[in-house]
Specification:
4 strands, 429 residues, mainly alpha, single chain, two-stranded antiparallel sheet, membrane
Length: 429
């Protein structure tokens, strides 16, 4: 901590902030996977345990303030594309998740993931960080009710007659003022004040009880392994490939973005990235056995980084809090989307600052960087944003006569992303 210029108090506060920002996954993941026919109670426990495993491994192996938990994009693809659209039983789909987890771990052991990440140009890494920032700000604006869907204009201003929207506005103003005045722990204080206001006004309901028993994982534990024999159709292997590639680049992009925000990058490389990727891989495998979709590094970790989290103690605190949450889950209901929305917006502002370092004056850099940044919020998918940038980069660099500056791996990724986009778009049909 001394080398990282931080303190125990700051790391604990950062861990608390990150945990509160991502605690929603404990309730959202069971909801989404429940639509696929899975037992919600079992998924709740599997979600918490996989988050504990991933966050503790990130703390011990990599010493980074980055939390890990089941990813939202992967669980949505699992339920709505694979199970519901393709008609594949969730048990068989979970077997696909298990196989992709094994392949994921092997890629990390041979350090292929590390090699790929180090081959990404610095400008694209900056664009990924900025794109993630704008993406999570968009998520915050949507979750807080400040913007809503519109058939005519795609998005529109939310209604100010909705009381909970004003709760988001209050949190955004208070947190913004505290940040401007450089008050330590501004983001966490803003969340606490917003929660208190919600409880006082009745916009947030008090929990009916405090302690609850931990649901059993029996309905989901080991189901993927038991149904490995179901993986025989080419279509199911395509599902395995998609899980593998999406998880690969979601986590890679998030790690790069968070490392840029925290100032960890050295000579365009992220120190100890191999250990960070190994933590992610092991937790993904563990989650597939327990009964949840692939885990990923969480962009909400940027909230803890923003208030000073710089070491593994931050993610260690997150892991401990996830363990406690298994007993005190009713208390987490007071942290609504209107409480976390201001955090995501503020953090999005902080992460977007990396755009100033991109070489915008060079069009061969500006085009792929821009497509990466806007692709994430406009497609509501981090992987798509990365794909747009990676597809454009080789083309613009070659056109500019800078072919020799392109890392050979970027050519490979060019064709990989073409295949990924093709499979994702034709698979549901």
């Amino acid at each position: 901590m001394k080398e990282a210029n931080t303190t125990v108090r700051r790391e604990i506060l950062a861990g608390l902030t990150t945990f509160v920002s991502m605690a929603y996954i404990l309730f959202v993941n069971p909801q989404v996977l429940g639509d696929a026919g899975m037992d919600k109670g079992a998924v709740f426990t599997a979600t918490a345990l996989s988050a504990i495993l991933g966050s503790l491994l990130m703390a011990i192996l990599a010493n980074y303030p980055i939390a890990i938990a089941p990813g939202l994009g992967d669980n949505a693809f699992f339920t709505y594309s694979v199970v519901l659209a393709m008609g594949i039983p969730w048990q068989t789909a979970m077997a696909g998740v298990f196989i992709s987890s094994i392949l994921f771990l092997l890629l990390s052991v041979v350090k292929l993931r590390e090699i790929v990440i180090n081959s990404i140009p610095h400008d694209l890494k900056l664009a990924i960080a900025a794109g993630i920032g704008i993406f999570i700000a968009f998520v915050g604006l949507k979750g807080g009710g400040l913007i809503v869907a519109s058939k005519s204009t795609l998005v529109a201003m939310g209604s100010f007659t909705v009381p909970t929207t004003w709760l988001t506005i209050f949190g955004l103003i208070v947190t913004g003022v505290l940040m401007a005045r450089k008050v330590p722990g501004s983001i966490f204080i803003g969340m606490v004040l917003t929660t208190i206001l919600g409880l006082i006004t009745g916009l947030i309901k008090l929990p009916t009880h405090i302690i609850s028993t931990i649901p059993s994982m029996k309905p989901t534990f080991g189901v993927g392994i038991a149904h490995l024999g179901d993986i025989s159709q080419p279509q199911l292997w395509a599902v395995v490939l998609i899980f593998l590639l999406v998880a690969f680049f979601d986590t890679a992009g998030t790690l790069i973005g968070l490392a840029e925000q925290a100032g960890f990058m050295k000579d365009n490389k992220m120190p100890r990235i191999g250990q960070a990727l190994m933590a992610d891989s092991i937790s993904m495998l563990g989650g597939s056995v327990m009964g949840t979709t692939p885990t990923a590094a969480y962009v909400e970790s940027s909230a803890g980084i923003a208030i000073g989290g710089r070491t593994g103690l931050t993610s260690l605190v997150v892991g401990v809090l996830f363990a406690l949450s298994m007993f005190f889950s009713p208390l987490l209901t007071v942290v609504t989307s209107n409480v976390t929305a201001p955090v995501l917006i503020i953090v999005g502002i902080l992460m977007a600052q990396s755009m100033k370092q991109i070489h915008w004056e060079k069009f061969e850099i500006a085009m792929p960087a821009f497509l990466t940044i806007v692709g994430m919020p406009l497609t509501y998918n981090i992987s798509y944003g990365i794909a747009f940038g990676f597809l454009a980069y080789p083309l613009t660099m070659i056109a500019a006569g800078r072919r020799k500056e392109i890392n050979p791996i970027m050519y490979i990724l060019f064709f990989v992303f073409i295949g990924l986009i093709y499979i994702i778009n034709i698979l549901p049909s």
